[in-house]
Structures are given as C-alpha cells and as structure tokens.
Amino acid sequence: MKKYLIVCLARIGDILQSLPLIQLIKTNDPDSRIALMVNVKYRELTALIPGVSECYDMDFDYLHKSMHAEPASIETLYGYFNTTFSDIRKKKYDHIINVTPHYIGVYAAFLAGAEKLLTSDRGDWNNFYLFITLNWQLLPFHLSDLFIKIAGLESRPNRPCIQINNQAENLAESFLKQAGHDRDRMLIGLNTGASEIEKKWPEEYFLELTKLLIEYFDCTIILFGTRADNVNSKKFIELFPRNIINAVEKTSLVLLAALIDRTELFITNDTGPMHLAAACSTRIISLHMGKETCSTTGPYGTGHYAVQPDMACHPCRQPSSCRHRKCSFAVKPAVIFTIAKTIFGQQRAGLIDEIAPVKSNIYSSQFNAAGFLEYIPSSNSEVAISELMTCMLRAVWDLTLDNPPRSRKSVWQREIQRLRISCEVNNISSIYREWAAIEIVLVGINTLAEEAISLLNELELLGHKPHIHIERLKQISKRLETIDGKIYAFGMQTEYCECITKFFMYEKDKIESADICVLARKTSKAYTLLYKRVDFLNIMANSFFTSNQSTAQGGKHEYNRQWHDSR
Amino acid sequence: MNMSLLETNISIMQQRSPNLARRLISATVPPHCAVKTARNGMPVLMVDKVTFHSQYDPQREGERIAEKFIDDNSDQKMDSLVIFGLGFAYHISPLLNHANKITVIEPRLEVIKAACEHIDLGEVLKKVKIVTDMESTEPGIMQGVFLEHKPSVAVNRDVYEKVVRHINHNASNHPFDSIQTDAFKIMVVSPIYGGSLPIARYCYEALSNLGHDVVLFDSSMFDSAFQKLLQINMSNHNSTVLHDLFLHLISEMIVATCVDDPPDIVLSLAQAPVSAKALERLRQMDITTAFWFVEDYLLMDYWQNYAPLYDFYFTIQDGSFFDELKKCGAANYYYLPVAAAPVIHRTFALSEDETRSFGSEISFIGSGYYNREQFFSSLLDYDFKIWGDNWNQNVPLWKHVQRNGSRITTEESVKIFNSSKVNINLHSSVCHKGINPDGDFTNPRTFEIASCGAFQLVDYRSSLNKHFSLDSEVVCYRDLAELRSQIDFFLSHPEERLNIAQNARNRILKDHTYEKRMQEMIAFIQLRKPALRSLQQNKKIAIHNKNSFCEDYPEAIETLNRLKPEISNPDLDSIINAIASKQGGLTYPDALFCLINEFKNKFNQVKA
C-alpha cells in the first residue's frame, strides 16, 4: 500500500482541480492511501473528496495573526511549522506531490519529506510547474492535467467527482423547499461573484440573462456567492420575486455542493464554485475574463461550454493595471442565453456557429488523443495558428518533461493530423505565413544552441586538462553569455517561443557545481534540451504542412460530423 | 454633580496645593466638558468630543494602561513619575504604589474640577502633586519617568509639546535634541535643480548619519532632459502641457518606487516634483509625507496649494506665515531653519594658485538679483569678486563677476569662502534697492560661511539672533554706510575676523548642522503622530531569544551560525540572506525559515 501526500495550500478551485489526479491515483492503485494538506478554511471540502483518507491543515489565519503580532516572533512560527512537519515526516509518505501554485507548497512538500524537489536541476514536470507559477500565461495545459503530469501519471479522459452524502442532500432539499422551489421547475444556478474584480461578468449582464432565462424557460434561478463578492441579490429578488432563490452567503461548502448538484445548468465566472459544479457533473457555462482562460482553468470534463472575450489583450497579462476592463463587457448576455438553449435542446446545435458572437469566443470541452482536456472552439472559426502552436507546445512538453521519457510521438502526430484535416486550403496558407515567421526564430535559436553545445563540449575537455587555459575559458564564457542574450532575444520575438526560451533560462540558472566539467556537462544538457524542443516543434509543423491535401479537404466534413456526434 | 465629593476632594487638596484648591473653588465646568456614564456605571469625561476613558469599563482600561506602562519601563527606576493628563484618574490610581513621587500635569482647571466633582480622588490627591502650569513649578518636579494620557494629549497638544521640550531641555536651544526617535525608512525627494537641491542631499546624508534607512530620489538626474524640453521652441500652451507631463512622469516614478519598496516617510524639498495626485497615492499607502519649504513664502506662492496636502510642513519662516498656513488648512507646520553640513562646509587650506584664483578682500557668491546689483554697485572700489550666475552684463559691476557668470559648484564655493577676507552676504530681494528691512529668515549661505570658519558680514534679518550671537558670532549691517565701515574695520583687523569666524563655526557645530535639523524634524513628526511606527519595524519578524531558540531547536544552530555572532535578535530577512548566500542544498531548518518567509511575502502581497 503506497502512501501519497498532496500538498494543496491554495484556494478551493485549486483543491478541486486536483480531483482528477486523486481519482487517477485511486484508479491506478486502489489500495493507496491519500492525504491532503490544505488551508484549514477548506478542510470541510476534503470530506467530500472520495479517496482522501487523511487531511493535514495549515491555519493561515493563525499564521497571519502571528506574523502581524507585535512583536512577531520567529519562535512561534518555527514552533508551529516544526510540530506540523515533524508529525507528517513520521508518516514517511512514498509520494509527495505539490500542486500549490507558489513556493509555500514547494517548501511545505520539502519539509514533509520531498527533499529532492528543491535540489533537482533536471527538467521535469515539477520544475516546469515551479517555472509556470511565475509565468502563468505560458501554460498550454489544463491545470488538472498538469497536476497529473507532476505526479508522474498519464492523463486520460476523466471526470472529477465529489460525494454528496444523504445528509447534505436532505439539507439542500429542505433549503429549496423553504425557499418555495417547485420541483417541476428547471433550476439554474448563477454564480455572479468572483474573488477578483477582473474575473467578474457585469452584474447588469447577469440580470439581463436572468430575465431571458426566466422568460424562456420559466425556470427558477438560484443565486450563489458571498458578501465578499459584492453580489447584490436584492436587485434580482426585486425584479424577479417569483423565480429567484437567494443562496448568497447562506451556504456551507457542503450545502453549496449539494445545491449546485441539484441545478441543471450552472452559469458562472471562473471561480471555485465552477470547479465544484464540474465535480457535481452539472452542465456548466463558464465565463473567463481578465487573465483567466478556459484552456488552463476551465471546468474539467467533457461537454462544458466556456466563453471568452475575443480581444487581442485577452488573456490579460497585467489585470491589476488594466483601467478599462473592456473584456468584462465583451461577452453579451444573448450569447450565454443561446448556449443555454442549445444545451437544453431548444436550439439546434449549429446555431451557435450562426450567432457569430461579436467579441466573444465559445469553446466546448473534450479530451484529445493524448488524454489532455482541450477547449475546442464551438463557433464557426477556422483553426488558428494559436491552436496549432498550443497543440504542438503540449506535445513538446509531454515528450520532453516525462521522466523516464515515454514515446508518445505517434499520439501527438494523430492530434496534429486531426487539426490538419479540419483546415481549409486557404486557412492552411494563412497559418503557414504565420508559421514561417516563427520558424525563422526557431532556426535562429537552434543555430545558437548548437554553437553553445560545441563550446561546452570544448569547456568540458578543457576542464579535464591539468592546466586550465584561463584565456580560452574566459572567451568561451563570454561567448556563451552573448549566445544566451541572443537566444532570449529570439525567443521573445514570438509568444509561442517565449515559454521554451524562458524555461531554458530558468533551468540553466538553477545549475550549480564547483566542478567545471560537471557544470559544462549539465549546461550542455540544458542547451540540448532546448535544441530538442525546438526541433520537435519543427518536425510537428512539418508533418502538419506536408499532409496530403485531399485528406485535408475531405476531412473537414468528416471532422465536423464526428465533432457534433461526440455531443 | 456630587457636592460632598467636591468638598472632600478640595479639602484634601488644600493641604497639599492650597493655591490650586483656591482656584478650583471659583472655577466652573463649561459645557464642552461633558460627563457620561460608562457601561459599568462609572463616570467618564468628554472634552471637545474627545472621550477621556473607556465607555465600557474605564477602571479596567486604567489598569491596563498602568500595567503596560510598568511593563514598558521595567528597566527603569520608578522613583518619580510625571503623568501628563489627570482625566478622571483611572490611569493614575493603579500607579500610586509604584512610585514615591508622582507629578500630574493637567493644564485645564475645568478637568480637575470635573474630576473632583465626580470621582473620589482622596488617595490620588494624598500622593500626587497636580500642576497646571509648569513655568511656576519648583525645579526638579518634572523629572521622572513620563507617562502621557493620550486623550489629554489630544486636547492639549500645544501644552504637551511645551512640556516635552521642557523635560528634554538640556542647555540646548533645540527642544527635540534628546528625544529618542525610532529608525525609519525615509525617501528624500530632491528638486530637479535649484537652491534646495544640495539641501536635499545634505538631508539625505544627515538622516543616514542619524541611523535611518534613507534613499534619495535624485530628481536632478532629469535635469538635462528638462533643460532640453525648455529649449524646444513651441507655443506657450504646448510648452506648459509638455512641462506638466514631464513632471507628472517623474512624480509617477516616485510613487512607483514607493510601491515597490514603501518608505515610512517621504520628505520632499522645495520644488520637488511631487504632484497632488502622487501625494494622495502616498497617503493611501499609509506613507507619511513631509515637505521642507526652504523658500520665502512671500516670493513663492505654490505652498498654498500644497501645504494642506502634506502631513507635515516645515518652514524657514514663522509668524504671519503660520497664520497663512493655518488658514489654508495645513495640519502640522513647524519652523525649521536651514543649517550647514560641516563635512562639506569646512575649513580648507588652499594652495597658492587656488588662493590667487578664488581669493579676494571681499567676495560674494550668489545670483544677480535686483537688490544685489543695486547694492554692490557701490562696492566696486574694493578688491571685490562676485561669483554666480544671472548677473547683468551691461553694467560696470560685470567686470567683478568671475568666470563670465557661470554657476559655482559647492566645492568651489567652500574654497571661495575660505580664501576671502570678508564674505559679503546679502539676502536676495526682487523689490528692494538693497537690504530688505523686513527680511526674516536666514539663508543657507549664512550657515555655510560660518561652518567654513570664514568671516562674513550679513544683512540684518529678524531671525539671525535666534541662531547666532550678533557681533560675537556674526556681524550684521543695516545699510550701505554701515557695511562699508565694517569692511574697512575688519580688513584692517584680521584677528577680530578670525575670532568671530571661529565662534561662528563652533556655534554651527553645536546647534546648526543638518543632523540637528533632521533630528528635530523626525522628533516633531513622531510627537505629532505617535501612531507612526516604522513600517519596516512592524514587518520585522525576529528571534527574540536566540539562546533559548537554539536550545529548543538545536538543528537550527547551523543556520543561525552563518549570521554575525553579535546579532542577538536575528530577523527573518537576515536569516534568509544568510541561507541564500550559502553553498549547497537546503537543510530542514533552512526550508522552515524559507517557508516562514514565503508566508510573510504572501501576506504582504495580499495586503498590497
């Protein structure tokens, strides 16, 4: 029986996004014992997660108070952590997985016993995650899939689920009864709040949508949120007194889950309750604004709809400095209403394509051949360079970060083909033009990487000699410095190379050794990996552009048919 | 009102303070002194809407104040106590058995009377000496450990400051000299150019010397760009817009710097490019702002818009300027004259070449203001060298202007002061033909020449005798005839010159350095804003007892050994720095300290 500890010291959403990982561990190893480490505020939630046998909590409020006490003493804090981690270390966990998106999790995992986590200079998923926590916008995976990879497992189609016990169901039933809900009426959940202002769809849009939904479906709308979200439930109740149930600030996490489970559709900003709905198998329409994107934090599982603003600045890189927040207003209520009608079969599926939403992109979730969750555009849009590059970058990371490496090239080739057959000829030419610019950058990077590798080989040889040739050593190191500068400059020319270049720099910076030969060897490996990643991109692009033309033309129709059948 | 209480209290008081008792009998309690009842039924005083004690349990609050006071002063001998503020004595009763001698300063008779009417002060009055006016008290009565009753301070701010000055007075003219202030993180913002630019640098140096953590935002780095902007030919409107944009950009940079690394105090010198919007942002960030207006308020009027926006406004003029500041809504203003930096303004042995080049019988350094041009035209028969810019080239005086009227550096000015037999100092004016008869403030040059151990003749200013002994430390002239006769006299009496110059330098070293001024400034800020605690200090998380920590957690010794042994209370930042600079992987205690640090950063981010 193996023991797993998952360190998740982030918010509800992050805990819920580790559900697919927990389920996968349990599927692969039913006898395993899984413990979670969470903020004590969310301990209640862990009781809903099947397969979790133990929970360690960290009292963030206590830590906050201790740090702001006068005087704040290290004695108190050190003592608190030492007691916590001494207990955990005694359990000797076989696998400690950190899914906390900041260094708190890294140090916590280290202190719990995962001591290699901080010392590894090998390019693996753990390192990639640490890098990503500093560069979220460069993540080409869904976070749940990344968690699975961090744990060293293989992604596969999977739907998160939580267990709502009878007691919680009864609570929800009596809550709805008390609110006068007619069981025959359709129940739709609206989660209008969000922790950050840039994630919020405007309240007046929610009001407008509520009107549309009530008029069309004669449904009951249940409002969720907290006072902190500034949800003004009064307005909704004043306007639609017969159809609104106000659950704002009235639920525990367990009751929230049980109520969401009762809804037939959950319309939400990108928040913790959205992930809770995904784990309740409720159909979801999610809105992703600001820095959020459905491809990384959308509801996990198939059949969900996600809507994003179609704006050049989305996803936002600096939400806190944005003054206009136009993205919040880009997606109109009519778009969400149309999707809702489609979901309930009141609208033929193709209409989403026809409404050609202005300033919004509609996506639908499905798993790809490699087992990763993808959000595919539902509207009538052609494959864009961004989709091709995202797919290829996923492949690059999947092929180069696994340890030990797995050969999944054929899987990714299939994925590329799938994209290829959905393309019109004209579209291919336009993608090719954009690719050509990227290719120039990639060639530039690889030429430099090759030169660096050869210099480092020479450096290693120099290191073996009894007398070090200081002058040559200086020359090499100076040249390497120049090469790095050029690689970085090349990489920053296109957003698609940014991740590879920055991760290379991140990995290289971590290399340490007092022995020049070891240092040269490790650094050479980093350049080799860079070369390999760039090369993979080239190979895959080659395969995309040189596929049989007729397949492509005929494939479009076939792809569309499969796509609609899959729903 | 309880008459029997009042009578009992007054009869006890008569034995100890008969005069006060007599005054109390005739005193009345005006309507602004209200007495409320606390939740526990005890009376609570309210003066000018300031509640003097807890409205829930004033006795418990008084006990807590006393406990904290005893705890804070556990290292001091409690023979004598000086308490500012009687209130209803809830904070005094618990201290009666902790000191042999207790003096209570209560400036308001009405408060004492109200206390006598509502509280049984029997025990207090037997032990305590109450004074209303410290001027008439016997010597030594103000000596002892000092406790301030905060609400009493709030309604008697002026008297309180006077008391603090009195208590700290130690043969110095500077009331705040001996006050221990906290060490703060301070940003000094200089102007882009001009007379207050070097003063900003002196402030920076002085604050650093006083142990504060200081950064200088040196706006002069934008000088060349700013000058270029002024040279571009364009319409007045465009010029104003660009000028404003440029200053706005610098202002935003100042705010951005504060966001990245927030100081406790931002001190701007006159003409510093800090906009009203920036001041608002700094206020939102809980940063204290101060401005040192080292200019003549009658000549420069921008203070009207800015003085109310700063938390503290320091001026080189008082009197009617204070009335104006009060009118325009400035909250805390304080008279703070300029000074000298003796490290820079020093006595200097010049080479022969330098003496030839910089020396003369009489000299003047400064810009060619109207009054100077007029006045100096009558001194052209002397060996007179004039240094500085903006002099009129079309008058006979121009022949005496050195280096074609180019600007003089600070180092050059020190050489000139040192090599001139008589340094003429004439305060600028744009509307007088010579001396401004109503001139009040003393210019930096007066202090700088004195600090150089050089001799000067300075036009009379009403503030001069506050800073120097006239005739023995500086010599003043009131008109041209007097100046000429003084020049003649002192040129022929070199020993007199040297004595006076030496006295002046000694006075500077004693009373007029920028260190003294900055000490005074920070003490005033802390006095007026007692809640101001160093943000950095608040953030410090430290080991409070290293020895017992090492006993409890021996595994951490290796990590702590990387710190300097003399650090007895290592803070988290220094521990993290030591960990970061070590070779090899992290140990368990290293990671534990790092985790604490990560939490600290996270919580600070959330706050931001």
**Beta-strand residue percentage of chain B:** 5-15%
Give the number of helices of chain B.
26
Largest protein-protein interface: A-B, 26 and 29 residues
Strand order in the largest sheet of chain A = 8-7-6-9-10-11-12-13
Low-confidence stretches of chain B: 170-175
C-alpha Rg of chain A, in Å?
Answer: 26 Å
Structural class of chain B: alpha/beta
Q: How would the global form of chain B be characterised?
A: globular
Instruction: Let me know the average pLDDT of chain B.
Output: 86
Give a written overview of the molecule:
Helix content of chain A is 54%, strand content 12%. Chain A contains 25 helices and 13 strands. By secondary structure, chain A is α/β, with parallel strands linked by helices. In chain A, the strands form two sheets. In chain A, strands 8-7-6-9-10-11-12-13 form an eight-stranded mixed β-sheet, with helices on both faces. In chain A, strands 3-2-1-5 form a four-stranded parallel β-sheet, with helices on one face. The longest helix of chain A has 40 residues, at 425-464. Chain A starts with a strand and ends with a helix. In chain B, strand 14, helix 15 (370-376) and strand 15 (384-387) form a beta-alpha-beta unit. Chain B has 26 helices and 19 strands. Chain B is an alpha/beta fold. In chain B, helix 1 packs across helix 4 and helix 17 packs across helix 20. The chains are: A alpha/beta (567), B alpha/beta (608). Strand 4 of chain A pairs parallel with strand 19 (541-542) of chain B.
